[in-house]
Structure formats: structure tokens, C-alpha cells
Specification:
The complex is a heterodimer of chains A (473) and B (515). Chain A is mainly alpha-helical and 473 residues long. Helices cover 78% and strands 2% of the residues of chain A. In chain B, strands 4-3-5 form a three-stranded antiparallel beta sheet, with no helix packed on it. The chains are: A mainly alpha (473), B mainly alpha (515).
Chain lengths: 473, 515
């Protein structure tokens, strides 16, 4: 049953690629079908477990726990929305790749077998590579190459961990890649640490964290905004998803061992990302770098490894996905009107485009963690866990909120306020664009006031993790 | 009293058939009229290979597997028969590529008359008369026969004979290109000289090993080595010198320098077939030699092979990055792949998924990818024949999306991306080495893979995201033979990546090499 959730978008990608007439409509149809399949499977799907490659101990095993549900929902909701946003300046190849990306991303979130996870993890890169390379700015080919090199490099390091698990697992008896079997393994301290380092490097590239973040801003600058949404809001989540599922889940002792270093990297990412964002003139680079800061916070929440931290991190992943998607898409609409992404060449836009300005402000404030908008809840939870870990860590992490307020409000001020400087008339958001942004903003508001459903989905997953970690300590 | 050795013809007839077809090909060349030769030779070769493949499958499925015959000169065991089948499969593809005559205005990729000096009237006359060398088919069949013997050689002498039988035709075939003949002849000469030297070194090592063990049989050598023997120094020198011969054939650093030249100079169909088939046969022989005869000396050769593997991977991948010619780039990438295969050799034979299985699967994956990739190289042409320069490949993804996409599949498989056969192959050899505690080599292997990814991905970037130049290469539509080879290779590459289970199980059931 869960297999269908993966197969629908995958089949959609193939059909879209060969469909001669109205391929975009077909693609959108498949995205909606995936959305429906996602909702249905959330309530009714039994786990899948079939033997795939017997000598390697690989199973086609899928399951959807609460955490998986959050990520699946984020993915299946965002894809149709970006498809509507992308309709004007993307051709059918992009739509086919987007569906392929969705299929593989869903597979990573559902995988109950490490090998399957790895295959999907790597397979997402090919659609992403073509989406960046085929649409976007003048230097997109280079950006795509840089993106792919970083990601494949991380992926190959992860391959080392994958093989390490196989060796340990065959020594313990018959090899198995089921995550539940791997969690039972008794891995020696040294092996565990090596495996952790390999996995963490891969996920840090993906997420991204300092110092392997340099592909991020180049990619978001050159890619179109719908592509960036899928990359930053869906694909990058696989990094932090992997940290929780695989680093904490499979090698908790090594995770505890590495936490001080990870926390420092996370803090650097938080502050450095935000400071860089403040200094950007290119709106798309700015949004990309804010994500660096946010991923730092998510990682901090994960490795603080308290109940609050983990629940906060999971919520943060969803909320950041929604808020940043809104930011990117609104920025895309803005850039389509102005023909440039340079902040300094925009001014006074709020008089001509009040709706655009208003939605930008809401999405921006959500990013900055304004109470009442959903990201606030997750940010508070993560910060509590940071203070629990060490008061100094907490103090530094809190600076993220101040810095976020600066980059959002200062960007808003430079773009939208001041005397209008319009060479040609600029229209406000049309109905299609409002239709794309509105669901995201509603979600931000709704989950800002009613975070309960998200928390109750995340909590059951967090409980056993925290128990394992505390037992390890 | 001399008794003639018993020979199990029931298991050896596929090899004998291939060699018989080669001899028949020579006869055809002497007696058949010129007009009939091409069709006769191609159908003879194809029929022979198909029958031999069917025979090999029957032997593999039959109960007589795991015997040694001819006084131990030949050992018909699971891995040996598997690699024979693999050699036959890629050779079938090779014949199809050899027979391609649509690409270059109705003539094959081979010189009209090899004896005519380049640039002379004799050469022009030969090409005006539309001459072509149909001797390439018997030559190839001899090489295939040699490779099949190499895969199952159970003693030193047979190993050497098979090595020579497979090598000599290759030297000749390399020098027979129709276009850029000087380059081709230079490559052939280089290949021949270096090959002759390495054969000599191999023979020397063989003699030393015989001196140590007093027996030619690999199994006996293994037994004597396990007991200690009288003069271990002889054995050590022998292992080293024999390894040089085999490492030369597989193109390992520091014996790799012929690889890029030969890959570039040889006619592309020859490169396509040779790069796959030679590697399969050489690694099958190497696995057998090291595991059966020198298995007891693992502590001595493993570190040495480990160092060579590290150098081979790093140098192959780094040099491939700076190449501007697609055939040279694939040549250096072949060197890097040799390094990955050597990494797999560092492991141990086990009942489950061990070194033997990993290396053989890697060879399967690599064989199909390289066959298909070079087949595509032969399609991309300009006014003066094939276009090797990568710059002129720019924009191929826009003008010929299907060809470019298929090429990308082969590149991705070589890069080891999931859902292609190359990934399972890479996973296997790394797992085999890591399982044997060779983690430093695996770390280097992962680093080299990252370097290797760069040049594969760069070609994809050129094809898909760069605008075509004015003198961009165009794709010439080939005959069905080439299309079928490319399509089947691509299908195999993807299928083995998505459902490798059956082949993996086959390999596990085939077991290890026996003495």
C-alpha cells in the first residue's frame, strides 16, 4: 500500500515525460493523486516488507511513523503548489523531474531499510540536477555541477557507512539492512564512531551545515524559485531526517560522543548563515542563507537530544518547509515582476503591490519566529533544549531570533518601503499566485495557534529515541 | 608408461567450438570469394558464439560443474564458467559492433588494407576498391577462445598459453583502424611491445613458481605454499613477477600507460569489446591465481595489491579529469575501475557474498556499461569520422536527447549511482574489502569515486546544459546491430541495478574458485 504512494508520482513522471498533449496538466493531476494517496495511506497503510536482494540482506520495507507522516504531508502538499507556481516558465521536462523527485523523496521518508533509504537518497539527485541545470539563471550549469558534486560526495561517504553496517551485520549473523535489525546490533565503539562520522558528513552536506554549505546559496541563486522550494524545503529535510532516524536511531552512543562538535557547527551555521543573509543583495541568495541558519537550529534541537529538542526539530522541519516555501515563491513572483533579484534595484513596491508586500511580510515574520505563526512554537522548543544543554549555547542560539528579525525586516524595508521607483507598471499578485501562497500562509497561522496535531504526531517517535539516548548515557 | 590425460569434452566443447570457428574463419578467408566473405564470417562468428553461450549455460546449469580435467590443466568451476559466459555475451555485442557498416558510408571501422602504408596510393586504391579486412572475425574468435581458456586455466602453462592466445589478436586488431591510422598503428606497436615484455616477465615468474613448488598445477602450488616449501624467496619473486603480467593486462598503475593510447587508437568497436572482455578474463584468471595458488600467502600479496589498488584508483581518476578526448577519458576511467576491482580482490572468498562474487558482479556491470558507452562513441561523428573531442559533444542532449540520455545511463553506472548496476558493483567490492579489514583502501576508494564522479558528471553537463558549437558532432544513425547492442546494454545496466537479486544469487550459488 505504501508502495503505491511512491509509484504514483514515479509513474506520473514517466507519463509526463512522454505525454504529447497537456503534460503539465497530467503532472498536476499526478501530484494531486499523490496528495490523496498520501492522506489515505496516513490512516490506513500497513507496513510493507518484501525481500529484495537476498544475498545483501536488502528488503523492500516501508513504514510510516509519526515523523514520516509529517514529512510526507509536507512533500505531497508542496509539490502541487509549486507546480501551479511554475506553470508559466517551466516546460514539461521540469514537471516530469519534479514528480520523480517527489517519488524518491517520499521513498526516503518511508524507507524502513537502510539500503532503500540510500538508493532513494542518491536517486533524488538526478532529478534535482536536471531541474537546476535546465531552468534558471545564466550560470545554472555550474551551479548544478557544484550541487551534484557536493551531494554525490556526501552520498559516497554515506556509502562507507552503508557498507560498514553490512560488515557488522554479517559478522553478527546473516546480513540485514532493516533499520529495526540494525538498531539491535551491538556495534563496537570505534566502528560506531566511524559510521557516525560518515553519516553525519553526508547529512551535513544535505541539510546543509557549516562548513559544507557553500553549494546552497549558489544553487538557490541560479535555480528557479519552484526548484529551490523543492530543494530546500523537501530535499534538504532528508538531511535532518537522516540525523534523527539514522544517527540518533542507530548509533546513539557515537552521536552522544560527537554532540559537542555538532553543537559548535550548528551554532556557527546559525550565526554565520544569518549574518551572511543580512549582507546579501540577491534576494534568492538571502533566502537560501536564512535556511542555513534554520538548519543550524534544527540540528541543535536534534543533538541536544531532549524531548523538547527533538519534537521541536521535527516541527521545525515542517514549519521551515512551509515558511521558506512561501518566501521563495513570493520572491519568485516579485522577481518575475522586476526582472531582477537584486534588492538594491527594488524600492517602494508596497504601494503598487500591497498584497505581495503583505504576504512577503507574513512569510518573513514566520521565518523570524514571530509568536502566533507556526515557526515560533518549534523555535521555542529548540531554544529550551539548547538552554538545557548549556546556557551559553542557548544564549548564542537565541541570537538567531534577533538576526532573523534584522534580515527579514531590513529586506522588507529595502524592497517594499520608500518612494516608488517604477519604470513600468507592476501588477499585484493575480489569482493563481494568491492561490499558491494562501494555503501556505493559512498553514503558518493555523499551526501557530494549534500546534497540537503536529506535536502529537511527533511525540510517539521521540519517546523511544530519548529512552535509548538516556540509557546510553 | 605414458597415459594420455582424460579430458572432459562435455564441459569443454564451448571453448573448442569457438576455437574451431576461428580456424574455420581462416579457411573461409582463404577460399570464399571476396563478396561472400563478410556475410559468411559474421554469421559464422555469431552462430559460433551463440552456440558456445548456450553450451556454457548448459555446463553451468549441469551437474558436472566443479571438475578439473586434462590433468588439472583446466578447472571447470562456477566462477570460471560464469566469466566465460560473460566473455561470450560481450563478444556477441562485439561482433555486432564489428559488423557495423552504416556509420562510415558503407564500410566497416577497419582499414581497407592494413599492409598499405598510410597516405600512399596503395591505401587510396584499397579504399576506392572498397576493400575491407574480414580477418578481424577469426582474429576476434581466437582472442575469445583464449579468454575462455584464461578463465578456467588450472595450471601455469595453460595460463601462459591462454594469455598469449588472447593477447596476440588484440595487438593486431588495435592497429587496424580505418581512420587516423598512424595513431592506431602507434597504439598497436606500444601495446605489442609492452605486452611482449610483460608476457616475458610473467613467464619468468611462472618459472620461479614452478621452481618453488615443483608443480605446474595451481592447486598443488597452493598446497606446497601452505606447507611452507623449501625456498619461499622463489615463491615471493614468482608471485611478484606473475602479478606484473596480469596487472599489465588489466591496466593497473604503474603498468597502465598503454591503456589510454590503445583505447584511443584502436577502432572503437575493438575498444568497446576489448575493454570489457579482456578485463573479465584477466580478473577471472587473477582471482583464481591469487586465491587458489597463492591463497596461503595472502599476508604478503594483499598489502602490495592494496598499494597498487590505491595508486590505480587515484591516478586513473585524477588523469581522467584532465582529458579532453572522450575515448582517452574512458581509458583512464577504465584504469580507475581496475583499481576498484583490485580493491575487491583484497577481500576473501566466502560462502556468502564475498570477494569472488563482488568482483564478478562488478565485471558484469562494468562490461555492459563500457560496451554500450564505446558503442555510443562510435555514433558521434563529424565530417572526418568519429569526434573524440569532448568540446564538440556539447549540446548533444538537445540535438539527440535519446543518445545523450543513454550515454548518461552508462556514465552514471560507471560513477556508481544507485539504480544502476555500477552501484551494486561498487557496493560489493567495497564491502568485500571492508569485510577483510582493508578500511584504508576503502577510504581511498571512496575518495577516488568522488573524483571520478566529477568527470562523468562534467560530460553530462556538457551534453545537457551547454549550447552546441558550430562544429558540433552529429549522431549518425547506425544499423540495427549497434542499436540492439546499445539498447540491451542499457537495459542490462538498469535491470542489474534495480533487480540484481537473481544474478547475485547465481554468483553465490556458483561458489568460489577451486583448485
Amino acid at each position: 500500500m505504501l508502495t503505491i504512494l511512491v509509484l504514483v508520482p514515479f509513474a506520473g513522471a514517466l507519463i509526463t515525460a512522454v505525454m504529447p498533449a497537456r503534460p503539465k496538466l497530467w503532472a498536476f493531476g499526478f501530484a494531486i493523486a499523490t496528495l490523496i494517496a498520501g492522506i489515505v495511506t496516513m490512516f490506513t497503510a500497513p507496513d510493507t516488507d518484501l525481500v529484495w536482494m537476498e544475498p545483501l540482506g536488502v528488503h523492500w520495507a516501508l513504514e510510516m511513523d509519526g515523523f514520516g507522516k509529517l514529512m510526507v504531508m509536507l512533500t505531497v502538499v508542496l509539490v502541487p503548489l509549486v507546480m501551479v507556481a511554475a506553470v508559466k516558465d517551466h516546460d514539461k521536462r521540469w514537471y516530469a523531474w519534479a514528480l520523480a523527485l517527489e517519488a524518491f523523496a517520499l521513498l526516503t521518508f518511508l524507507a524502513a531499510d537502510l539500503f532503500v533509504f540510500y538508493i532513494a537518497f542518491e536517486a533524488t539527485l538526478i532529478p534535482a540536477y536536471f531541474m537546476i541545470g535546465q531552468h534558471g539563471g545564466p550560470n545554472r550549469a555550474r551551479a548544478a555541477l557544484k550541487f551534484l558534486m557536493f551531494q554525490l560526495g556526501g552520498g559516497l561517504v554515506l556509502l562507507g557507512a552503508l557498507i560498514g553496517f553490512f560488515v557488522v551485520s554479517s559478522e553478527a549473523g546473516s546480513p540485514s539492512y532493516l533499520i529495526s535489525d540494525l538498531a539491535q546490533l551491538d556495534i563496537g565503539t570505534t566502528a560506531q564512531r566511524w559510521i557516525f562520522v560518515a553519516m553525519f558528513i553526508a547529512f551535513a552536506v544535505k541539510a546543509p551545515l557549516f562548513p559544507v554549505h557553500t553549494w546552497l546559496a549558489d544553487t538557490t541563486e541560479q535555480a528557479t524559485t519552484p526548484t529551490s522550494v523543492l530543494l530546500v524545503c523537501v530535499l534538504d529535510k532528508i538531511g535532518t531526517f537522516g540525523m534523527i532516524r539514522l544517527c540518533l536511531g542507530l548509533v546513539p552512543e557515537a552521536s552522544a560522543w560527537a554532540t559537542p562538535v555538532v553543537v559548535v557547527l550548528a551554532l556557527i551555521s546559525i550565526v554565520y548563515g544569518a549574518v551572511l543573509a543580512i549582507g546579501q543583495d540577491d534576494l534568492l541568495r538571502l533566502i537560501g542563507l536564512t535556511s542555513l541558519s534554520h538548519f543550524g537550529l534544527i540540528t541543535l534541537g536534534i543533538f541536544a537530544a531532549t524531548r523538547e529538542g527533538l519534537v521541536g526539530a521535527m516541527l521545525y522541519m515542517v514549519n521551515h518547509g512551509v515558511a521558506t516555501a512561501a518566501m521563495f515563491l513570493i520572491a519568485g513572483f516579485l522577481i518575475a515582476r522586476k526582472g531582477t533579484a537584486s534588492i538594491s534595484s527594488m524600492r517602494g513596491m508596497e504601494k503598487a503591490t500591497p498584497v505581495l508586500a503583505g504576504t512577503f511580510l507574513i512569510a518573513g515574520l514566520a521565518t523570524a519566529g514571530l509568536p502566533g505563526l507556526s515557526q515560533f512554537v518549534s523555535e521555542i522548543l529548540v531554544l529550551i533544549s539548547a538552554f538545557d544543554y548549556h546556557w551559553l549555547v542557548g544564549v548564542i542560539a537565541v541570537s538567531a531570533i534577533v538576526l532573523a528579525a534584522i534580515y527579514v525586516l531590513w529586506a522588507y524595508q529595502r524592497i517594499f518601503t520608500g518612494p516608488a521607483q517604477l519604470s513600468r507598471p507592476v501588477s499585484d499578485l493575480d489569482r493563481r499566485e494568491v492561490g499558491v501562497v494562501a494555503p501556505l500562509l493559512v498553514a503558518l497561522l493555523f499551526f501557530g495557534f494549534v500546534p497540537g496535531p503536529l506535536i502529537s504526531a511527533a511525540s510517539p517517535v521521540v519517546e523511544p529515541l530519548v529512552n535509548v539516548i538516556q540509557a546510553g548515557e | 608408461m605414458f597415459e594420455s590425460p582424460g579430458i572432459s569434452y562435455a564441459t569443454l566443447w564451448p571453448v573448442l567450438l569457438v576455437l574451431a570457428v576461428a580456424c574455420a574463419g581462416v579457411v573461409v578467408e582463404a577460399f570464399a570469394p571476396r563478396a561472400a566473405r563478410f556475410n559468411t564470417q559474421v554469421s559464422l562468428a555469431l552462430a559460433g558464439l551463440v552456440a558456445a553461450l548456450a553450451g556454457t549455460v548448459a555446463v553451468g546449469a549441469g551437474s558436472s560443474l566443479g571438475i578439473s580435467t586434462g590433468e588439472g590443466a583446466l578447472v571447470v568451476d562456477g566462477p570460471g564458467v560464469f566469466s566465460q559466459g560473460l566473455v561470450l555475451l560481450v563478444s556477441l555485442g562485439g561482433v555486432a559492433l564489428f559488423a557495423e557498416r552504416r556509420l562510415d558510408n558503407g564500410v566497416s571501422a577497419f582499414a581497407g588494407q592494413a599492409a598499405a602504408l598510410p597516405g600512399t596510393p596503395a591505401e587510396r586504391a584499397a579504399s576506392q576498391r572498397g576493400l575491407e579486412h574480414t580477418e578481424v572475425y577469426p582474429l576476434m574468435m581466437f582472442a575469445v577462445g583464449g579468454m575462455m581458456l584464461f578463465c578456467i586455466s588450472g595450471d601455469l602453462l595453460m595460463l601462459f598459453v591462454a594469455l598469449e592466445v588472447l593477447s596476440l589478436p588484440l595487438y593486431l586488431l588495435t592497429g587496424l583502424a580505418r581512420r587516423r591510422r598512424l595513431l592506431s598503428q602507434e597504439a598497436a606497436l606500444k601495446y605489442f611491445l609492452l605486452g611482449a615484455f610483460s608476457s616475458g616477465i610473467f613467464l619468468y615468474g611462472l618459472a620461479l613458481v614452478y621452481g618453488f613448488a615443483g608443480s605446474m598445477s595451481l592447486a598443488d602450488i597452493g598446497d606446497v605454499a601452505a606447507e611452507g616449501g623449501s625456498s619461499p624467496l622463489l615463491l615471493l619473486l614468482g608471485i611478484g613477477l606473475m602479478a606484473v603480467g596480469l596487472l599489465f593486462k588489466t591496466g593497473a598503475v604503474p603498468f597502465h600507460s598503454w591503456t589510454p593510447d590503445v583505447y584511443q587508437g584502436a577502432p572503437t568497436p575493438v575498444t568497446a569489446w576489448m575493454s570489457a572482455a579482456t578485463k573479465i578474463a584477466a580478473f577471472a584468471a587473477m582471482l583464481r591465481l591469487f586465491y587458489v595458488a597463492f591463497g596461503a600467502e595472502g599476508d604478503i600479496w594483499r598489502p602490495a595489491i592494496g598499494v597498487i589498488a590505491v595508486l590505480t584508483m587515484l591516478l586513473g581518476a585524477s588523469f581522467a579529469v584532465v582529458q579532453t578526448d572522450v575515448k582517452r577519458m574512458l581509458g583512464y576511467s577504465a584504469v580507475a575501475h581496475t583499481g576498484f576491482l583490485l580493491t575487491g580482490l583484497l577481500g576473501v572468498q566466502t560462502d556468502a557474498f564475498g570477494s569472488t562474487q563482488a568482483v564478478l558482479f562488478y565485471l558484469t556491470a562494468y562490461g555492459f556499461a563500457t560496451l554500450g558507452a564505446f558503442a555510443i562513441v562510435s555514433l558521434v561523428r563529424g565530417p572526418n569520422g568519429e569526434v573524440g573531442s569532448l568540446d564538440r559533444w556539447a549540446g548533444l542532449g538537445r540535438t539527440n536527447p535519446w543518445v545523450a540520455a543513454t550515454f548518461a545511463v552508462f556514465l552514471l553506472s560507471m560513477a556508481g549511482l544507485p539504480l544502476t548496476a555500477g552501484f551494486i558493483g561498487k557496493w560489493g567490492v567495497f564491502a568485500a574489502a571492508l569485510g577483510a579489514g582493508q578500511w584504508p583502501v576503502v577510504v581511498v576508494a571512496i575518495g577516488s569515486s568522488i573524483i571520478a564522479v566529477f568527470f562523468y558528471v562534467r560530460v553530462m553537463m556538457l551534453m545537457f546544459f551547454t549550447d552546441p558549437r558550430e562544429d558540433a558532432a552529429a549522431v549518425v544513425t547506425p544499423s540495427y546491430a549497434t542499436i540492439v547492442v546499445i539498447a540491451l546494454s542499457a537495459v542490462a545496466t538498469v535491470l542489474l541495478g534495480v533487480i540484481p537479486g537473481p544474478v547475485l544469487s547465481l554468483l553465490v550459488d556458483a561458489g568460489g574458485f577451486i583448485g
